Amino acid sequence: MYYLLYSIIRILSHIPFRVMYFISDCLFYLVYYVFRYRRRIVRKNLTESFTSKSEKEIIKIEKQFYHFFVDMILESVKLASASKDEIKRRMSFKNIEEVNETLKQGKSISLYLGHYANWEWCSSIPLHLESDVTSAQIYHKLSNQNMDRLMLYIRERMGAVCVDMRKTARYATELVANRKVCIIGFIADQSPKKVESHHFLHFLNHNTPVLTGTEKITKHYGFEAFFLNVKRVKRGYYEAEFIKLHDNPQSLPDYELTSLYYRMLEKCINTHPELYLWSHNRFRNAEILNK
After folding, report:
1. Domain locations in the chain as residue ranges
2. pLDDT by residue (tens digit) across 115-141?
3. Which of 70, 84, 260, 291 is the most exposed place for a label (fewest CB within 10 A)?
4. Which strand (E) or helix (H) includes residue 199?
């Protein structure tokens, strides 16, 4: 089954971008109008998050989101065969010099990302780093072993190492013990289970439970903390800017680093709401706030 899936993905990944986006436009109508994929969740998330917007504005954002959602799925498939030069041309990184300088000084980095814009193409960061730096990304292991294996292949093609989120602390400990300089990407806006919902933040008009593991690892091991602000320049092209969250994360009170991250992410979402993953039931354990 794995090799069948792999073959299908490889074949699809060779479709030229122009043709791929034509296919995406066609798939949008199927996903949005026919299958109505998670329409109820998307509408609920948008309506609750943007209470000042009219129904017409919400529907416009909703359709833009589904257009982008299908684009991103097909763009992720392209990672299965795209050359490093092609991805470097389509996914550029701003302020990468500061990141490399930080790493050269022997300081490791926690990189905060969100389910915003094309987070899958961010796995190409190693193409812009020094060769002796370990670049890792924390991921949630899929229940389907074949799909999990396939996604690992796609996500590691550009040089990043995927680490099961359940093994994050152990992995970081081993890197520090072996004095390995690293940059670890955390998609930190995941929704914790109800029993793990210990800290809440005001996020998109919700009293939202948030994961704080990234902050704990960053402060415990003395990592630097950066936020990756991803922008969609145009269809098929992105620019990601590294923004330092704080000069001394270890000096911050508990949860303040997490708050800084969420404030930056919310600013990005308010600028281009269609680029956020609204199909995820992010606020299932949250309470709606009255602004």
Report:
1. 2-288
2. 999 999 999 999 999 888 999 999 988
3. 291
4. none
139/122 Cα distance (integer angstroms): 13
Q: Checking DSSP bridges between strand 237-246 and strand 287-288, what pairing results, if any?
A: unpaired
CB 229 within 8 A of CB 240: yes
Strands (E), 56-215: 91-94, 109-113, 134-139, 161-164, 182-187, 200-203, 206-209
Beta bridge partners of residue 231, listed in sequence order: 239
pLDDT band at 78 (very low <50, low <70, confident <90, very high): very high
Rounded CA-CA distance 59/62 in Å is: 5
**What is the band of 235 on the pLDDT scale with cuts at 50, 70, 90?**
very high
CA-to-CA distance for 16 and 39, rounded, in angstroms? 29
**Is-contact 116 275, C-beta < 8 A?**
yes
The DSSP secondary-structure symbol of 51 reads T
The pair of structure tokens assigned to 195 is 């029993």
Q: Tokens 């995820």 sit at which residue?
A: 280
Q: How many CA atoms lie within 13 A of 175 on its CB side?
A: 27
3-state class (DSSP) for residue 90: helix
Look at residue 217 and give its three-state secondary structure.
helix
Residue 52, both tokens: 């000042």
Question: What pTM does this model have?
Answer: 0.95
User: Per mean pLDDT, which range of 2-6, 15-19, 166-170 is the poorest?
Assistant: 2-6
